[in-house]
Amino acid sequence: MLILHGKIVDGTGNSWWYGSIAVKDGEITAIGSLDNIPARRIIDARGLIVAPGFIDVHTHIEDDEIKNPLASNFIYDGVTTVITGNCGLSKVNLHQYFGLLDSLHLSINAASLIGHNDLRKAVMGSANREPGSSELLQMQQLTEQAMKDGAVGLSTGLIYIPGTYAKTTEIVVLAKIAAAYNGVYATHMRDEGDSVDAAIEEALTIGREAHIPVEISHFKLSGQQNWGRSTETVNRVKQARENGLDVTIDQYPYTASSTSLSTLLPDWVLADGQDSVQARLLNPAIRKTAIDYMVKKLQRRKLLHFSYAVVASFKADTTLNGKSIEEINLILHQKHNAAQEASTVMDMILKGGAGMVFHGMSEKDVQYIMQYPFNMIASDASIRVFNQGVPHPRGYGTNARVLGKYVREEKLMPLEEAIRRMTSLPAQKFHLNNRGLLKQGYAADLVLFDEKTVNDASTYNQPHQYSKGFSYVLVNGVIALDNGIQTNARSGKVLYGPGKK
Questions:
Q1: For the domain that residue 422 is a member of, what is the CATH number?
Q2: What percent of the chain has pLDDT over 90?
Q3: Neighbouring C-alpha atoms within 13 Å toward the C-beta of 13
Q4: pLDDT digits over 190-229, tens only?
Q5: CB-based contacts of 287: which residues, under 8 Å, 6+ apart?
Q6: Is residue 327 part of a domain?
Q7: Containing domain of residue 274, as a range?
Q8: N or C: which end of the chain has fewer CB within 10 A?
Q9: Are 202 and 189 in contact (CB under 8 A)?
């Protein structure tokens, strides 16, 4: 295959140049002036950027890859590789999981972290206590096996049950094992709001004590009371790098987050399994204590209602998808106050819980964080099933939004720099050899797009819309997006970490 006369942005961050690329047997075989080489397929790339395929370092594809192996939302956004197993959530048996991915033949490449939450759950359930010596040993053994099976590192989700019950020392012990296999420590920190400074310091401490590279996930500031603190938080990361710690961050380019409804409740309410949770939420005294906690947190946000919390997916009643907790409370003809809305949240959790979109960040903070050079672009999304639920638009438009809004319109960074953050920086961080650059001998993961028209179409109200401006996507040398239309190609591979035995 020949890709002729494109505007090449090679992933290094260096300036673009005009040239052509030859692809054979899944690899880039030549770059330069190649007009006279015979080829079975020629793509005229005049007017198009030719770049390495984008690497999304923070995804959650588990279980959704079975529903849609074509991973269309990623392909239409220029993504050729994802790293899953983030926020402490992964399959514990990665050997088995990688076998599943091999059998499914995804359209994208996939690597995985090993998730601390699921390790802990496998050994201790949802217990709110420290592990005993034998339990910690079991977690160590599971971590080591995962690294041998090919995990690219260890992840934590320290706001999620049961990860939130873990002390720093527990994480350090497991991170040391990941470090021994050249893995990365990727963390959804313990707090991204009022206590964000302490949370960043904990992540850096784990990196120093375990001698492991650190990746701080979806770097942000939550809650109106914390707006403007991005200079402070980014400076903490800068200082750590200046002091010799390999720490990087990633970010999605939106002012809303997305996670479980249960994160609104106090951690202790969610301990010890669903039966215990249900018993607590049905106990009037405990329920009142939890309501008081939730209302106080709302007041810290300087809000009167839970209008910032919008349902993405509520299986018990899909008619409520896309509505805020305040709206749902009114639909149910309840009192229009925060306490009653908190009670409505608990009733929804008793019915199985919900996936949510939380509007609570400042655009100024988003832009300031985005300008930090050791910040990767990541969606924090799953493989979407088209027209299912009202999910966060980041699952469809993350890369296109950066290239359209923040590069072309806002001019926050040059195009070459944005592409470096989407390609070679992630490949370097997660040891994805032969990926992330346009270079002879590297895997032919390529994306061709129009820098003048690339844009995200997905919105909060109408999320199920593919990005615009991408013309071609190649995964391992096979065309997955052909002249703007997805093919049925499923040429993705499992990418293993350096500890693979």
A1: 3.20.20.140
A2: 97
A3: 9
A4: 999 999 999 999 999 999 999 999 999 999 999 999 999 9
A5: 280, 281, 343, 346
A6: yes
A7: 260-358
A8: C
A9: yes
Burial 467-496 (b: 16+ CB within 10 A, else e): bbbbbbbbbbbbbbbeeeebbebbbbbbbb
Residues 74 and 136 placed together within one structural domain of the fold:
yes
- Residue 487 corresponds to which amino acid? T
Residue 169's contacts (CB-CB under 8 Å, 6 or more residues apart) are none
Q: What is the DSSP letter of 289?
A: H
Alpha helices in 181-224, H assignment, sequence order: 196-210
Burial profile 225-256: b = 16 or more Cβ within 10 angstroms, e = fewer? bbbebbeebbebbeebeeeebbbbbbbbbbeb
Of 295, 270, 293, residue with least CA distance to 280: 270
Could you tell me which of 124, 192, 134, 127 has the C-alpha nearest to residue 158? 192
Q: Looking at the DSSP assignment, which residues form a beta bridge with residue 163?
A: none
Domain identity same for 148 and 133: yes
Per-residue pLDDT of 75-132, as tens digits, reads 999 999 999 999 999 999 999 999 999 999 999 999 999 999 999 999 999 999 999 9
Q: Is the pLDDT of residue 284 over 90?
A: yes
Q: How far are the Cα atoms of 119, 305, 347 from residue 325, in angstroms, in the given order?
A: 33, 8, 11
324: which DSSP letter?
Answer: B
Does residue 147 share a domain with residue 125?
Answer: yes
- Alpha-carbon distance of 481 to 70, in angstroms, equals 11
Q: Name every residue whose Cβ is closer than 8 Å to that of residue 212 and which is 6 or more positions away in sequence.
A: 153, 154, 175, 176, 178, 179, 183, 184, 185, 206
Residues 237 and 183 both lie in one domain: yes
3-state secondary structure of 234: helix
Task: Give the total number of structural domains in the chain.
Answer: 2
> What is the number of alpha carbons within 13 Å of residue 453 lying toward its C-beta?
11
Are 174 and 143 spatial neighbours (Cβ–Cβ below 8 Å)? yes
Q: What tokens were used for 372?
A: 């930090």
Whole-structure pTM value: 0.95
Q: How far is CA 498 from CA 26, 27, 182, 432, in A?
A: 21, 21, 6, 9
